[in-house]
Amino acid sequence: MAMLSDRPHTALLVIDVQEGVVGEAFDRDPVVARIAALVDRARSEQVPVVWVQHADAGLQRGSAEWQYVPELAPDAAEALVHKSHGDSFEGTDLEDVLGAARVGRLVVAGAESDVCIRSTIHGAFTRGYDVTLVGDAHTSSDKSVWGAPPPEQVIAHTNLYWGHQTAPGRTAAVDLAAEVRLRGA
User: Fold this and answer.
1) Residue pair 10/107 in contact by the 8 Å Cβ criterion
2) DSSP state letters, 42-75
3) Beta partners for 107?
4) Please, are residues 159 and 23 in contact by the beta-carbon 8 Å criterion?
5) Across residues 142-151, what is the average pLDDT?
6) pLDDT band (50, 70, 90) for residue 57
7) Per residue in 127-143, pLDDT tens?
C-alpha cells in the first residue's frame, strides 16, 4: 500500500502519446495499441484514466504535433493534465486531480521512456505513490545521434531498474499490459 494510506484507488496515467512525441517512436503501433487496450480496460473496470499532454517551445499547444494520436481519444469526463516539464507533477494540477480521486497507486504508460516516463515515475514515487510501469506500453524515439543507446535498450533498461526500485512504504513494479492489475495492488 502506498504511503498515501487515505488513497486506496488506482489510476491509469497516460503520458504524452502525442503525434509529435510518438510519431517516430520505437514500436509505435503495437505500443499505442496496448495503451488503447489498457484505456478500454480501465474504463470498463471504472478505474480513472488521467491523460497528460506536453507542450513547450518545440511542441506548440494546439498544433497538429501536440494532439493525441488518433488511436487514443480522451473522454471528456477524464482528467487532462497539461505540462511543460518532464515530471508530470511539476507545475501542474496532477496532484490535485489524483488527491480528489483518492488515488495512491499509478499504472503508467506512454512516452518518452527516457524523459517524461522516467521523470514522472520517480516524481510519483518520491511523493508517496505506488507505481507500476507497464513494461510493454512505453516507448521512446531514437536519440543515439546524441549518444543515447538505441530506444529498445532505453526501454529495457527503464524496465530493469524500475522493477528493482525500492523505498519504505511504497512499491514499484513492472508488468506487461496483458497482465497488469488495474484494480487493487
Assistant:
1) yes
2) HHHTT--EEEEEE-BTTB-TTSTTTSBPTT----
3) 12, 132
4) no
5) 96
6) very high
7) 999 999 999 999 999 99
